[in-house]
User: Fold these one by one.
Assistant:
Number 1:
Amino acid sequence: MDKIATTLAGKFIVFDGPDGSGKSTQIARFVQRYREQGLTVKEVREPGGTLIGEQIRDILLDPANDGMTMPCEMLLYMASRAHLVEQEIKPAIERGELVVADRFVSATLAYQGTAGGLPVEWIQQVAEVAVAGFWPSLTFILDVDDQTAAGRLNPLLDRMELKGKAFHAKVREGFLEQAKTWPDRYCVIDATMDENTVEKAIHKAVEKWFLTMNFC
């Protein structure tokens, strides 16, 4: 196991960003890299990751539920998150594993906050309960423009992906604003580049972040 893999034991890293940013691809590569290094990696996704969380996910992403109010939406995401933290994330961190999550509170702040209109203060207050102190060591924001993102989406869009161009433009703004507000917790990666270049940028950032303690 190399030095960076050893350093990542017991850490919690989140990959987030607009729909179509390439998160799934980069998470798969990231997890494989460190498992090959001999590090135990716990991979989770949001919403979901537990039996109860997956049922909540089905409700949230079902296009038939287009009448869902924004407060209801936010609270359902947080309910799934609270269960995931207690059942999966907390135990894995305590075992010294690297936890890698596909979305976390950053997504709620962007989608239901900046784009959805809910006050950030409300979201943060509920998040404190849901997260129970287990905040990410680092959150990657894979940033893409609208045109690039649209070209990568599955034509069978879920309820969140169907919210429209203006909504998703605000989502992107929300993610970038978070990175400006908390530069010691967030790292923005240009995800319009090819997959290999994005992967290299992520690993360069990880080494810089955890080995030299210099931020992105």
Number 2:
Amino acid sequence: MNKGDKSMRALGAVDLAPDTYAWEIQATGLKVLVGRKRMAVNGLDLTLGRGVHGLLGPNGAGKSTLIRTMATVLRPTEGSLSLLGTPAGHGDQRALRRRIGYLPQNFGYYKRFTVREFVEYLAWLREMPKRDIPGAVQRAIERVGLADRADDQMKTLSGGMVRRVGIAQAIVNDPEVLLLDEPTVGLDPAQRVRFRELMQQLGQDSCVLISTHLVEDVATACSDVVLFDQGRLVFQGTPAELAAAGTPEHVGDSPIERGYTALLNHQADRANW
């Protein structure tokens, strides 16, 4: 995590008042209600700066709800959330969205669109300058290894390729905050390695948050781990610190998996006390 003032990029700068901020993402007492009763995010305090951060947690922990709130799809119910020094969930969010990249767990597309047309369409929705779109689209497609399929229709792609197109649209605007929900689903081992390398490159200049069930992806790609369960922060630290929380008695095939299990078990014991 990198604390300190950051100068804003030119894109969208005139629309946002703050020109400095301490953290790319900052949540204080954040609560997000889903439906009428379920508090999917419950009193979260979290700060994230530049780098690659892994968001771990079991099914139903609230990870996707948290990512969607950070992407300004959902509004906070209570507390505060700011991205790039700007409050999220209040007022016109278009200027902020220009500076965010977002890959949801499931995304729709027109099957007759080519890969290039789909990424161009998402660049247009983010209000990128028209003159910049062709070059940005080509660069994003190349970075996910789909240059040879750029003019193929989306309906001809495998599930893993569609996921890579989703990553391409998320990075097309060179976002300062990149939010990825289960980005490696459907990727083969070699593609996962390339994905990790790409994330490490992007994390040098951006705040990247990856929600995943694959603990080993976090161990190799992320400098920081956020463990989330029942809408609450259980742990934040390095992969090494997460691994150190476990013992050989805990379930898992690797030290980091055993640390993950140990912390979740401890959280469950506290909840039942």
Number 3:
Amino acid sequence: MEDSRELNKKVRDIFFEVSKIVIGQENLVNRLLIGLFTGGHILLEGVPGLAKTKTINALAKALRLSFQRIQFTPDLLPADLVGTMIYNQKSGNFEVKKGPIFANVILADEVNRAPAKVQSALLESMAEKQVTIGETTYILDKPFLVMATQNPVEQEGTYPLPEAQIDRFMMKVFVNYLDRDSELEVVRRIANMDYEYEPQQVIDKEDIFAIRSKINQVTISEMLEKYIIELVFATRNPLEFGLKEEAHYIQYGVSPRASISLYNAAKALAFFDERDYVLPEDIKAVVADVFNHRILLNYEAEADGVTTRDIIQNILKNVAIGR
């Protein structure tokens, strides 16, 4: 197995390859790689035109993993996602026609536009890493990563994602507008119509599993383990931590999956920074992405303009390390 320095270099090379195509989305690439190397799925939210699809496509090419883009629409059927049984007239038997879900990297574009039956089919593949067609269950190839996008602006013709499915996403990442310099670089690059770059393969599947193994070996102190648990419990019992206003707005706190996701994400971030131990800053850097889709607020929070990100910031201010 390769040592950590060689694997760290390959992670840096992935960022470099993707940056040749996508500008100013380093945080997005970082979170996608955390999901890839820890076996978690990522939900992206942002207005159209922020290169969400292009980033995922470029990342899949740099990893040389099989990639499928699925455009979710109101008339999409579960069979369009997982596949179906087709009758072969020559043999007189039914044969399996596998759907696009049978790939390593899945881009579920505008995932909230599909009805409940399709969401259910996607949920099985995300949660169980398997697909059932007819009476046969098929194990999906590893690694398997779902990257879903949803548009926060246009809500007509959309179906709210079930809470159980939202919880299956390791992180929800908000994709923001670029800064001025990055936007100018995008304009200059796109204006050059002859500019085309195909990402070079940086790592293979063996490297991915080797990096996963190294991330598992990253140590986290007992004090920081308890800090993660305290952050989680602060969403469930805000009054215990002196968060009176937050207690007024939070309907449900985060699930145990949040604890696991935060634990793994912090370790992955430490590995990316070439450390074999977790710092408090690692936890604080990813806690919003792990928590923001799992904290359920009531109608009063919506009426007062309070967001989950506001809640998380106040929790970080009030929960001390070593409490």
Number 4:
Amino acid sequence: MMAGRPGDVSAAVECRDVSFAYGRTEVLQGINLTAGGGITGLLGPNGAGKSTLLEILATVKAPKTGTVQVAGVEASGGSNIKAIRRRLGYLPQRFDLMMWSSCRRNVAYAAWCNGVDPDQADDAALAALAAVDLADRRDVRAGALSGGQRQRLGIACAIAHRPAVLLLDEPTVGLDPGQRLEIRDQLRQYAADACVLVSTHIVEDLAVVASSVVVINHGELSYQGTVEGLAADQSEVDSRFQSPLEAGYLAHLRRSEK
């Protein structure tokens, strides 16, 4: 995959006592999280705070309390934002594309916005499109792509500047099983020398690609560990109709509600 990413991915993402609130509504409370190289899955029920945490890591929102460090750079009081953004790629669940423009131009523009020299933006775009298997669609309008291809184009926009940290919010939502398999494989390859943090409701997307899992429930971090560790914890759940990871995740949620 792409070489020369800035930053050390051994502890690429760190949150220390991070909290966030919308008015009087607490969304995150005292989050302490460390993620390094490979894929870390972020699980939790709707409204648990997963998207808000990704927005804080992406510097879209500032935490109410606590500190965040991304790829060796700490966001402190709003400083260092530009340096952090050049080290990370972020794809929210809902993202905009220039539908009238080609895939190549969409990705080249994203690369330029993230600090790539204009003279190198086109080459960066072609490399990113190849990484998500869209090289043959480089001159096709974004609006002519299928849903799965648009998701891959969004990922290409997020990785064109070769970030050390990649944040993805529900990247496989609404996709068919074949499209999900393609994106999982591309993320696995990218994570070979990067930190990838993926929020998802599809537990099985993590079973074969994630190196670690984080569970957030009611704004609190309730599990951080290996996929195998979560899958092994299946008490209190009838696991006949779930995979081991799904059963372990459901058992953990039930226990954390008590």
